[in-house]
Write a structure and sequence with these properties.
The protein has helices at 19-24, 45-51, 64-73, 95-103, 126-142, 158-164, 173-183, 208-224, and strands at 6-12, 32-38, 55-58, 80-83, 109-113, 154-157, 188-192. With 233 residues, it is an alpha/beta fold.
Length: 233
Amino acid sequence: MPPTPVAIIIPALNEEQSIGCVLDAIPPDLRAEVVVVDNGSTDGTAAVASSRGARVISEPRRGYGAACLAGIASLGLPEVVVFLDADFSDDSSLLPELTKPILEGRADLVIGSRMLGEREPGALPLHARFGNWLAGRILTHLYRQRTTDLGPFRAIRWETLRRLDMRDCGFGWTMEMQAKAARLKARLLEVPVPYRKRIGRSKITGSLIASLRAGATILFTAFRLLRWRPTTL
């Protein structure tokens, strides 16, 4: 059987309450392999994901980027890879809107922009909105990539992802992807997506201190990668 054109990677850490909702909302007619990366959960996240038909792999090293890298390493050769959070804040029924531009050859990287879409009150706190604004200014002025959001709901062409040589194991992951994609001159498209309050407590935006730490990591990543250039032909 040929590989499915779309692979969906969902990093998850103690998302037993929400992961089933995320998986159930994926359009059944979307030809996709769904990989849930259990990032050290102590609840029933893995069992719920497996019961919904997802392939579950374990990545005990904590970190958003570490989970994403583990998911990538487990894939075959899809055409498009989608990254989606497990907390049900993004609408996974909109997956075709992110994958279609890539499958049709119109884009290499598609970001689901929460800033362009409608946000449920309280879903994205003020400090998170400011962080996105600042990251967007950095990408626009330093990398010549007009961006409104570093949202985790994103799709990327497999060949483009391979050339980015992703390394970040933490919350610098999304900035690394967009900064390197800009250096690669990948075609970026932003799609407005709605954003709702997550199920359960956020590990980052729900805490000002955690948000500041994540923000510092993102800024450091942006400046660290200014000298990066792709080496893969």
